[in-house]
Amino acid sequence: MKKGLIFIGFSTLFFSTMEIAIKLAGAQFNPMQLNFLRFLIGSIVLSPLALKHLKGSGFTLDKSKVLYFLFSGFMCVVVSMTFFQMAIVYAKASTVAILFSCNAVFVIPFAHFFLKEKLTRWSLLSLAVSLVGMICIVNPENLTNITGITLSLIAAVTFALYGIIGRKGSLKYGFDGVVQSSFSFLTGSFELLILIWMSKIGAVAHWLKSIGLSDFANIPVLQGISWNTVPTLIYLGVFVTGLGFSFYFLAMEATSASTASLVFFIKPALAPVLALLILGEALTFNVLSGIALILVGSCIELFSGNRQAKLKRSKLLEQNEVHVH
């Protein structure tokens, strides 16, 4: 258990500094370029752990699995993380960190509709409390950054959908989270690379600029990489994306899925404090109130998950006793 808590601590620290590191690297890299580089590096860091998990499992990469990884990689890297990168351009790192952490809340209704999971009263209460917290952070009375907030919420919703896709893949093919992430990050990176190459086509670049999407035109691949920017790039790719997810999955193995999910419950509180210390981003009363409500909502969902797990275990024990007698 002690080892599991250490893994949770490292994963929480790396994930909580993600938006800050991206904000610091934003001046040197195109948002799409940075997205591509960090997930490519992350997939390489995750690959040894993924191969270790696959060893002796009889796993084979057929057409069905390739198509699945292409789809999951597209949803994660190309769709969700592109919106995430753009959100950091337009909004404060602390705001993006808090709103993106709500992806765990959005999983609740998606799991009900796509995975037929039961909606409990506790899950609905968690969703309601977290949504009130989000409204406090957004603060409709003083809504000055609609673009950044909208992009953050789209990133959170689409990442929740990626999570549902991952669950369906796990149920269908039997692989775990580390294999899912490693292959999805790799395929998503190559899909993004294809789009980057397409953005360099003259007619495509001209059209993107004409509709106000200059960040998506003539996207560089290696430009901006220098001795000054390599440390930030390594931190994002190796530590945040690669080791962050590695420690998260190792924590899941050492403890449980519900205990490991504490990473995303602590992040909404820790990330704004780090953003205040490193970037000098102010914490308003509305933001602090929103953080508190989201943490309460997350704890309710954690309690609900643990309660459901205990009920399942007790039912299994009862069934086993019946079979024995």
TrEMBL record:
<protein>
    <submittedName>
        <fullName>DMT family transporter</fullName>
    </submittedName>
</protein>
<feature type="transmembrane region" description="Helical">
    <location>
        <begin position="177"/>
        <end position="198"/>
    </location>
</feature>
<feature type="transmembrane region" description="Helical">
    <location>
        <begin position="66"/>
        <end position="90"/>
    </location>
</feature>
<feature type="transmembrane region" description="Helical">
    <location>
        <begin position="146"/>
        <end position="165"/>
    </location>
</feature>
<dbReference type="InterPro" id="IPR051258">
    <property type="entry name" value="Diverse_Substrate_Transporter"/>
</dbReference>
<dbReference type="Pfam" id="PF00892">
    <property type="entry name" value="EamA"/>
</dbReference>
<feature type="transmembrane region" description="Helical">
    <location>
        <begin position="96"/>
        <end position="115"/>
    </location>
</feature>
<keyword id="KW-0812">Transmembrane</keyword>
<dbReference type="InterPro" id="IPR000620">
    <property type="entry name" value="EamA_dom"/>
</dbReference>
<feature type="transmembrane region" description="Helical">
    <location>
        <begin position="122"/>
        <end position="140"/>
    </location>
</feature>
<feature type="domain" description="EamA">
    <location>
        <begin position="147"/>
        <end position="300"/>
    </location>
</feature>
<feature type="transmembrane region" description="Helical">
    <location>
        <begin position="37"/>
        <end position="54"/>
    </location>
</feature>
<keyword id="KW-1003">Cell membrane</keyword>
<feature type="transmembrane region" description="Helical">
    <location>
        <begin position="232"/>
        <end position="250"/>
    </location>
</feature>
<feature type="transmembrane region" description="Helical">
    <location>
        <begin position="285"/>
        <end position="303"/>
    </location>
</feature>
<keyword id="KW-0472">Membrane</keyword>
<feature type="domain" description="EamA">
    <location>
        <begin position="3"/>
        <end position="138"/>
    </location>
</feature>
<comment type="similarity">
    <text>Belongs to the EamA transporter family.</text>
</comment>
<feature type="transmembrane region" description="Helical">
    <location>
        <begin position="262"/>
        <end position="279"/>
    </location>
</feature>
<dbReference type="InterPro" id="IPR037185">
    <property type="entry name" value="EmrE-like"/>
</dbReference>
<keyword id="KW-1133">Transmembrane helix</keyword>
